[in-house]
Design a protein that fits this description.
By secondary structure, this protein is an alpha/beta fold. It is built from six helices and 13 strands. Helices cover about 20% and strands about 30% of the residues. The chain has a seven-stranded parallel sheet, sandwiched between helices. The protein is globular and about 40 Å long.
């Protein structure tokens, strides 16, 4: 991996109006606590690393509907069957990892693996916080396909917060997904 790929990824994702936050692994917990402090609840997928959520003071809901298994030791009580209405409630944020990130396009790729959750978790809440480690960043789409653990899984590719433009080309965010996307780049 070129050392420039994580920086290119962050630059391109920022071009799409994603919030970009750089930190080390030791600083990650502090950055996540800051980004999620205004949430009334944070939904987490099974398999999310326990050290990411240790010490968070906001109430955590573990989406128990995913087949990936439990998320660490006692992180949150599993809630089976969180609906779109539950996830669309005011103040709900979601915290995930990703499978791969593409530098050329500034895209995060989720494949419903451990720590990523089901598609509904990342497309409905108003705020999505995604952690991307340098080792997960690849140059382009062909490299992304070869980097995926299982390329036959359904993919969700996210390049910035959900946005559209009206007839006068005024940008509107959050129409078909999260209004706010924060990407934490762990170096």
């Amino acid at each position: 991996m070129s050392p420039d790929l994580p920086l290119l990824f962050a630059e391109r994702a920022g071009d799409y109006r994603a919030g970009i936050h750089h930190c080390t692994a030791a600083e990650l917990r502090e950055v996540l606590a800051r980004l999620l402090s205004a949430a009334s609840r944070v939904v987490i997928p099974p398999g999310l690393p326990q050290e990411w959520i240790d010490g968070l003071t906001v109430p955590l809901l573990l989406d128990g509907a995913s087949p990936a298994g439990p998320a660490g030791s006692g992180a949150a009580a599993p809630i089976t069957g969180l609906t779109a209405a539950d996830l669309d409630a005011p103040g709900v944020s979601v915290l995930t990892g990703c499978a791969v990130a593409i530098a050329e396009t500034g895209t995060i790729v989720l494949d419903a693996g451990a720590g990523q959750g089901r598609r509904l978790l990342t497309l409905v809440p108003d705020h999505h916080v995604c952690v991307v480690r340098d080792a997960q960043v690849v140059a382009d789409v062909p490299d992304m396909i070869t980097a995926l653990p299982d390329p036959t899984r359904p993919l969700t590719m996210i390049s910035g917060p959900s946005a559209t433009s009206d007839i006068e080309l005024n940008r509107v965010e959050g129409v078909h997904g999260p209004r706010r996307l924060d990407i934490v780049c762990v170096h």
